Amino acid sequence: xxxxxxxxxxxxxxxxxxxxxxxxxxxxxxxxxxxxxxxxxxxxxxxxxxxxxxxxxxxxxxxxxxxxxxxxxxxxxxxxxxxxxxxxxxxxxxxxxxxxxxxxxxxxxxxxxxxxxxxxxxxxxxxxxxxxxxxxxxxxxxxxxxxxxxxxxxxxxxxxxxxxxxxxxxxxxxxxxxxxxxxxxxxxxxxxxxxxxxxxxxxxxxxxxxxxxxxxxxxxxxxxxxxxxxxxxxxxxxxxxxxxxxxxxxxxxxxxxxxxxxxxxxxxxxxxxxxxxxxxxxxxxxxxxxxxxxxxxxxxxxx
Length: 303
Fold this sequence. Notes:
By secondary structure, the protein is an alpha/beta fold. The protein has helices spanning about 20-30, 45, 60-65, 80-90, 105-120, 130-135, 150-160, 175-205, 210-215, 225-235, 245-260, 265-285; strands at about 15, 35-40, 55, 70-75, 95-100, 120-125, 130, 140-145, 160-170.
C-alpha cells in the first residue's frame, strides 16, 4: 500500500538495522551527511565503532527505529530481515519510509511488502551495487523502486550512500529493483568464478598468470574486474572482504531460485554456488569472494 511519507525537515532520523560491511559504511555516510542515525547489529561490537561518527548504538531493533523517518535494513537475507523487523515492530512509526537494501530475493520481497502494508510503512525496494570501497566512499549505485510521492523522504539517504540512483518502478512489492540486482549479481558472480578458475588452471599448468593478463591486455577479453579479483588472490589481499564468500553463495542461490521460478536454468550460477560453498567449508567463508579460487583444489593441497 502506497502512503505519503511524513517528513517535515531536511535532516532525517534514520534507523539502520545491520552494520556489516555495507551497512556500517552506509550508516557512517548518512551520519556524515548530517542526519541523526541510530544503528543496531545483532553483534553489537560491529556497530560500536560507528559511535565515533556520531551514530547512536541501540541495544534493540525497536530502540533503533523508534521515531525514525527512515528505516534502512542491510541484513543477510530475507528471513533475517523479517525476524529483525518483527522485533522492531512495536516502535515502527506508521508513515515512515522503509528502505530495504538487503539482497533478499524476489520471493522474500513479497512477504516483506505484506509486512510493510500491515505496519503502514512506505516500502522502497532499494538494493545497492558495489562493495566495501565504494560503500565507504559513498559511491554505491542505488537501484530503487517505490512511490514517487514518497521519494523526497529517501533521496537524502540515497544521496548520502550512493553516486547515483536508478529508479526502476513505482511499486516496491513488484521487485523491479531486486530483479535488476539479481541480474547484475549474476554477472558479478560469474566473473568472479571465472577468475578463480583461470588462476587455478594457470597454476595447474605452470602458466604465469600475468602472462595471460599480458596476452589479453587492451583487447575485448580484458577487464578491470579480472585484474582486481585476481590481484586479491595473487597478492594475499582476501581479508578484510569486500564481499564475502558466504554472502556470494547466498546470492548465487537466490539467482538460481529466481531462474527456476521463471523456467530458466542457470548452470553457471548453480556451479558458482557450489564453489562458494566448498570454499566456505575450507575455512574461507569470511574472506573476499575471490577466495572461491581455493575450491578448485583439495583442502590439503598447497594452493
